[in-house]
Amino acid sequence: MDVGAQAERTALAWQRTGFSAILVGALLVRHHVNHGVPPWPGLLLMVAAGLSVVVWVPMRYQRVLTTLRLEHSPVSRAMVPATAAVLALVIIATAADFAAELITH
Q1: Which of 40, 52, 74, 76 is in Cβ range 3.0-4.6 Å of 64 for a Cys bridge?
Q2: What is the pLDDT of residues 38-97, one digit of tens each?
Q3: Residue 39 and residue 16: Cα distance in Å, rounded?
Q4: Buried-state track 69-82, b at ≥16 Cβ within 10 A, e below 16
């Protein structure tokens, strides 16, 4: 049984999610530019997702593989709070964007 297969599938899933977030950010930027609204929420989403795909996902994957080779648990205590904080920031940015669009129209 390949102990790294689950970690690889998880890393690939995070990469797909990151690429999807980049696409959503690009669509937000396009929408905002067409409607004269500042495009910063979409740009912020694109930058955060891009950094995740390029930096965070590969680092996490390598750390999990190293931990599995040492026969330790790869569960991170910081993962859940960090993910919750990122999601909260995305939700706040999206809500601010919708509020700004409602105010301007």
Answers
A1: 74
A2: 898 899 999 999 999 999 999 989 988 898 888 887 777 787 898 899 999 999 998 998
A3: 23
A4: eeeeebeeeeeeee
Q: Tell me if residue 3 falls in helix, strand or coil.
A: coil
95 vs 76: CA distance, rounded Å = 30
Report how far residue 89's alpha carbon sits from residue 76's, in angstroms, rounded to the nearest whole number: 21
Q: What is the pTM assigned to this prediction?
A: 0.66
Percentage helix, strand, coil for the chain under 3-state DSSP, each rounded to 5: 85, 0, 15
CA contacts within 13 A on the Cβ side of 75: 3
